[in-house]
Amino acid sequence: MTKKELGLRDNFYSFPTCPKCHKLYNKQEVEDYKENNINSVMKCRHVEFPNSATRRNRQCQTILSKQVPTMNRFKLKFKLIYLFARIRQQLMAFYNRLNFENFLQH
Ligand SMILES: [Zn+2]
């Protein structure tokens, strides 16, 4: 909470990622995924050659997360996460470093 109040938190955006083909997914989409109306583990839907007549229906099918038991429920843990920070935020962090502008002159 102190870190948040002082603005010391890194605000990364995170995307669940397929460990095999590296396709990025929306976090909410993976968390809310349901099969037969029951929360379930989502599999990758990436098709490597969508224009190929023989491989059109061959999806990656790699599992994107696993269910980890918590106190009274299950929580999803993503197999692979892609983190990214916006360029504006990164530049702000650089310029807040001591003498950063002087180092740019060199
Ligand atoms: Zn995949």
UniProtKB/TrEMBL annotation:
Domain of life: Eukaryota
Protein name, as recorded: Uncharacterized protein
Organism field: Diversispora epigaea
